[in-house]
Amino acid sequence: MTLQSVKFYQTGTFTVGNRLLDDAQRSVQANMRRTNSLNSGHRACQGCGEALGARYAIDAAMQAAAGRVVAVNATGCLEVFSTPYPETSWQIPWMHSLFGNAPAVAAGVAAALKVKGRTDVKVIAQGGDGGTTDIGFGCLSGMFERNDDVLYVCYDNEAYMNTGVQRSSATPPAARTATTMAVGEHPGNVFGTGKNVPLIAMAHHIPYVATASVANLRDLEAKITTAMGIAGSRYVHVHVPCPLGWGSDPADTIKVARMAVESGLFPLFEARFGEVTSRYTLRRPVTVEAYLMLQKRFAHLFTPRRDEATLAAIQETADRNVRTFGLA
Amino acid sequence: MFQVRIHGRGGQGVVSAAEMLSVAAFDEGRHAQAFPSFGSERMGAPVIAFCRIDDREIRLREPVMNPDALIVQDPTLLHQVDLFNGLAPGGFILLNSSRSFEELGLADLVGTLPAAHAVTVPASEIAMQHVGRPLPNAALLGAFAALCGQVALDSVAMAIRDRFAGRTGEANVAAARDAHDRVRTQMAAPAHA
Amino acid sequence: MLKQIEGSRAIAEAVALCRPEVICAYPITPQTHIVEGLGEMVKSGALTRCEFINVESEFAALSVAIGASAAGARSYTATASQGILFMAEAVYNAAGLGLPIVMTIGNRAIGAPINIWNDHSDSMALRDAGWIQLYAETNQEAADLHIQAFKLAEALSCPVMVCVDGFILTHAVERIDVPTQADVDAYLPPFEPVQILDVDDPVSIGAMVGPEAFFEVRYLQHHKQERALEMIPALAAEFEARFGRVAGGLVRTYRTDDAETIVVALGSLNGTVKDVVDAMRDKGDRIGVLTLCSFRPFPLAAVRAALANAKRVVVLEKSLAVGLGGMVSDGVRKALSGIVLAGHTVICGLGGRAITRASLTNLFQRAQRNELGVLEFLDLNHAVVDRELARLAQARRAGPTAEAILRGLASAAAGARSA
């Protein structure tokens, strides 16, 4: 009888791999000793990408830091749904100050720990795209520039979701938000606006920048783990679909995230001191349409008529990413 | 209380002069308060600094409206700023210039003051000679010590050394002593018409 | 040890003696010399076990202090004017979270129009944010108040602002008695946090609080300040016992026992007022001074006790409640509730306009002759005001007011010179 080797691609999933892997290779979440630092009982929506991403990220950080992590959170969905007074889902020391100052508050925590000689305790700052790319941008840049010893994790759901889906500088072109409605001559968010904070982080030449997605949770864990082993300012930008704000099916969150990656619209890469050091090459490329069609915030590109020009422009953006980051 | 007002331009050490004067008085165990009249940091703009000296705690915080002594570090201010406003009757004027009051057109003003209360001293030239830079403030403080008798030259020297380390300090002290001696000489000589 | 140093330097040395652990600084006139002094001490190694962080804005400065304080470090920053407004969100946040941060305010006017000189509009703008506010009369007191401030803040878990008149105090060189490290250590023990981000005992700080609990949380802040009314004099008494001089406390009275007219003021202005009062007393006028050192909490009982027997009160204010008049006067009036006496608010010194003995003497004499109105503006140039009002009435597109006034003053000065 000939033996045929079977390749298991999704070794990190519950369905196949974890029971076949030894302990060291298992994902953090598959490990019985995971800390569950963002514990159940929080008030996130069904299918919330941010809750998923945060749980994976913080637990990975806790494993890397032997359970000694302090988190500073900006105002936003994560902060609101995780701490509805008088309850908290956080099993770690956690602080929420303001919307725009998470990087600065985290820098303060790091300074205090340093002065007290607690080099064993690590600081994580986290915020949504609004708190990171807009109102917290000045403080973020200051933190990077000083190379404060903080890992900043941005959960990017591409709009101010907590306040009702308003446009941020992370909102993609053509997306419908409450402040970029799908009406008029140019429905949805305006083309030619927006900022790429991972690239801006790289421009600060901080030790580590990475993009990640809830489409690949092992990759997210690995990047957080890598970041936790580096001193100085580190930035991880996680793409997290929001079913409510994107108008996607809560059951489709991971699928939508995967489409964003495989279309080239959300490149996954790592960079050190301003230079890209690794990237995820697309395994099963899809057109941007396959991604956009899953979300009602882009429905106006398909009905009542197809907006070929806009679809082509978005495809061009994706193609440019593939070229620039070498994703093919 | 003895009140001093110092006029000059930004970059000439007017504020330092007031501070050093206050340190000299402090070194003699007296109370002294020195503060600037402020503008934004800019070289060349007119600057005023004040110093009050007293044997008791100084509570007053207004600018020096009625100076007992006026020190003018820059004569180009003469017809631009109202330098002599509020000068107390019986007050002192110390002017940085190699020219006389007559030549500067101030004979009448000086005439209202008691004898030997107004002197000109070429402080910038003295500073050039001893320090190599035309910063007249240390020399003027030496002159002030001689003119007003409020602080001793030795106290001024100590304050200068406190502010300027090493050779710069010594050079400035030499400039102060030089100016001090010249003023002493001038005060002893009969007044010119 | 006696030193002849700049007020800012005295404050820096006092803060350094308090063993701060995290100092964050963003430059703004007139506090710059304070944080520069501290920065140098840290960099040279004179001040150890202290992180000095150069931040990118005042908002970041107080935010860094918030994080550091929550992590258990004794934290300090300083600002003024536009800076305290830029960090306004964080000012409320620090008070609401109960973090014992000490911050120096180098009192400076707030624009527009932009102005770098002294008045109290900056600290007054945040007077209700929940911070304790102490005002220094002299640079010695400015230094001493910082030492008391750390102890007070940490005892109550409430942030404290020490207000020091910009330029007038910050940039004045005068005699300061700088305490010894041993004396400060004996007075101020190490920081023992009430709440702390600790991996061995995790807590969540800063959760959203809804209608069911917000009121109580906010009330408890108010309650803290009521406790401060007792703690402030107690700490001042302890300070006097250890350091041998009076500093701080809620209020100070000067020749008020038999005074008919009592002048109320905050900060360095009190010094000038006392000189005027002495001169007037020499001529037989019954006039005295009430110095408010603690403005928040507002010492209602102490103010009432000091003013109750006067015939008239003149409150000097270096800030203008636009549309109303006085801010300090509000508290004074509240303190005098039920007592009938003539009260006058005098707005003075805005934007750094000098307050002179001559003007004050004239003002107090007019007060004694019952010639003062309820709201007065000391040394306001009414001719300039009238001229500008007339100019504005002439055309709709009259142009900016500030520039027009300055232009008018400049040409008037030129005219005077050539006359």
What's a concise summary of this model?
The complex is a heterotrimer of chains A (328), B (193) and C (419). With 328 residues, chain A is α/β, with parallel strands linked by helices.
Describe the structure.
The complex is a heterotrimer of chains A (328), B (193) and C (419). With 328 residues, chain A is of the alpha/beta class. Chain A has helices spanning 49-64, 77-82, 102-115, 129-134, 137-146, 197-203, 217-228, 243-246, 253-262, 288-292, 308-325; strands at 69-73, 94-96, 122-128, 151-156, 208-213, 234-239, 269-272, 275-279. Chain A is globular, with a radius of gyration of 20 Å. The model of chain A has no long low-confidence stretch (mean pLDDT 94). In chain B, strands 2-3-1-4-5-6 form a six-stranded mixed β-sheet. A seven-stranded mixed β-sheet of chain C has the order 3-2-4-5-7-6-13, with helices on both faces. A six-stranded mixed β-sheet of chain C has the order 10-12-11-14-15-16, sandwiched between helices. Chain C contains 15 helices and 16 strands. Chains in contact: A-C, B-C. The A-C interface holds A 67-70, 72-73, 79-80, 83-86, 88, 90-98, 100-101, 104-116, 121, 138-139, 141-142, 145-146 and C 21-22, 24, 49-51, 53-57, 59-60, 63-73, 75, 89-90, 93, 97, 197-199, 201-210, 213. β2 (94-96) of chain A pairs parallel with β9 (204-205) of chain C.
Which percent range fits the helix content of chain C? 40-55%
**How many β-strand runs of chain C?**
16
Q: Spans of chain C of 5+ residues with little confidence (pLDDT < 50)?
A: none
Chain-averaged pLDDT of chain B = 93
Give the SSE layout.
The complex is a heterotrimer of chains A (about 325), B (about 190) and C (about 425).
Chain A: H1 49-64, E1 69-73, H2 77-82, E2 94-96, H3 102-115, E3 122-128, H4 129-134, H5 137-146, E4 151-156, H6 197-203, E5 208-213, H7 217-228, E6 234-239, H8 243-246, H9 253-262, E7 269-272, E8 275-279, H10 288-292, H11 308-325
Parallel strand pairs in A: 1-2, 1-3, 3-4, 4-6, 5-6
Antiparallel strand pairs in A: 5-7, 7-8
Helix pairs in contact in A: 1-7, 3-5
Chain B: E1 2-9, H1 14-27, E2 31-37, E3 46-54, E4 69-72, E5 92-96, H2 107-111, E6 118-121, H3 123-131, H4 137-148, H5 153-163, H6 166-188
Helix pairs in contact in B: 1-4, 1-5, 3-4, 3-6, 4-5, 4-6, 5-6
Chain C: E1 2-6, H1 7-17, E2 22-25, H2 32-44, E3 51-54, H3 58-70, E4 75-79, H4 81-86, H5 88-97, E5 102-107, H6 121-125, E6 132-135, H7 139-156, E7 160-165, E8 173-177, H8 181-187, E9 204-205, H9 214-243, E10 251-254, E11 261-266, H10 269-282, E12 287-292, E13 294-296, H11 300-307, E14 312-317, H12 328-335, E15 342-347, H13 357-368, E16 375-377, H14 382-394, H15 401-418
Parallel strand pairs in C: 2-3, 2-4, 4-5, 5-7, 6-7, 11-12, 11-14, 14-15, 15-16
Antiparallel strand pairs in C: 1-8, 6-13, 10-12
Helix pairs in contact in C: 1-2, 1-7, 3-5, 7-9, 10-13, 11-12
